[in-house]
Fold this sequence. Notes:
Layout: H1 2-16, H2 25-36, H3 40-69, H4 72-87, H5 89-100, H6 107-114
Amino acid sequence: MWWLHTLVFLGALLFDMVPFPFAPAFTMMVFLHLVFQLDSWLVNVFGEARSVLDRFILFLSAPLMANKYLKFSKNEDIQFLGGKMQENKWKGQMVIPAYSLPPIPTKPLFQGQVL
Length: 115
């Protein structure tokens, strides 16, 4: 049964690692939870571990991906967002949890913070 929880981890990781806006990873987690009737707490634990790992991978790969796949104007927009967040560190850091709460993609915000 543990392999199903590993499937939740890997599936959600793949959902989140797509370099363009995509469906949130929790949709994959909920789908697998409902289909295989998995324990909610374990799905949540594996999902949160995946989220931490995904943000770390995004932190390392965002500058390379931005230069390679984004248009120059979009890259400038993301750098502008990151610059605004760096001006007032306290406000910039508080925006991240507030923006992460609703089920919308957080990739643009995290890319701005990294670049």
